[in-house]
């Protein structure tokens, strides 16, 4: 927040003389959604400035590529040290622009720290030449090589739910691959990304990482200039970006919305399921692409499960934190988000659903109370649309087959969870689900295992995945080289 203050001062005269509304704003104020307080402001970077920045990155990138994975590892590990040394400051900035409880704000720097270490250490292995098909007859006369060569400039466009962790998921593997990166963070939470840029400069690393702030138009300029686009955000915006990339014939990957189902089978440990699903639905106020957004419960345990779930949700403490962790749930990112959640609840209630707890605004900032809804069905927006808020609609199902059928009745396919006392049964059900990841008796576990591929099916995304070798190779073009042996 401090870093952004000079920008606000410099921009003040512009605001005074500014022409009426139609004029494009030159500065964006950033607010703490828990308090409404302005915590900083950032410039709106123009399309010309973005183009110039990409040209500049392109000049410096070859040297970054030339130092190889081991040279880059040194810089990335230095940056890891910087993240560790600055964890509290970073959590302050995350907290100030998201209105999260302290404990959740610490997840952002912690996740970024672990991830940069993972890619710094493994990139050399993931980018090493492959020599495929030793049994091919051709291999008797030719050495066959697959080499990985980075795209010069990768554009990364990120949303507001994890203002450091979302950028980290792509900025670090792209840098590890040898690409330069231009990052356009969400205009709702740009301050954390600016901290990353500050840190990168502070350790004296090569100028191959830049952050440009602004809204959709600035993002559009990144899409118009970079050589590869990674977008994380809404399905609607992702579709626009795919079209723009197709026109330029530029590759892209999209990590979009979700409507993750949880299936509770009658043989599940109901205490664990209720606790895990309450966490999966309410963590970060439900603003996680892989939040639990729908729950299907086998009839024999439905009443008992609903009682346990409601008790878990009621026990959550909601409020604004300082540096001490006192609360489990904070505010929503902005007013628009609060309106979507309220609409989903109101439409469900109007169609016959019942609110067992929550259902209304929490009385500070944008915050919405953790909510459990029952008597819901697949005609209601709270079940068919992504809510991205603290709501858990629960449905009774006759058996496993009905649970699978309803879980698969969605345009999304990001992740899912299955709760059962029989792990093999859990795996069997997992393989029937249309979801890029399935956690058995857990939530989020796949995302914290960096070695696993993470990516959505259907309207939840397309293109390469996060995690593992693919997570870094996607930022490279493959080159096939044949060399005569004789
Ligand atoms: P949200 O995540 O708020 O639902 P979006 O998916 O639209 O909203 O936003 C995610 C990111 O995409 C943000 O950084 C936003 O500024 C950016 N963005 C929005 N529209 C465009 C666009 N047309 N082209 C490129 N980036 C965009």
Automatic annotation (TrEMBL):
Keywords from the UniProt entry: Oxidoreductase
Positions annotated as active site in the UniProt record: 255
Gene3D superfamilies: Aldehyde Dehydrogenase, Chain A, domain 1, Aldehyde Dehydrogenase, Chain A, domain 2
MF (Gene Ontology): oxidoreductase activity, acting on the aldehyde or oxo group of donors, NAD or NADP as acceptor
One of the Pfam families matching this protein, by short name: Aldedh
Keyword hit for Oxidoreductase: yes
SUPFAM superfamilies: ALDH-like (SSF53720)
Signal peptide: none
Domain Aldehyde dehydrogenase: 24-480
CDD domains: ALDH_DDALDH
PANTHER family: ALDEHYDE DEHYDROGENASE-RELATED
Similarity-based family: Belongs to the aldehyde dehydrogenase family.
Protein name: Acyl-CoA reductase-like NAD-dependent aldehyde dehydrogenase
Organism: Nocardia tenerifensis
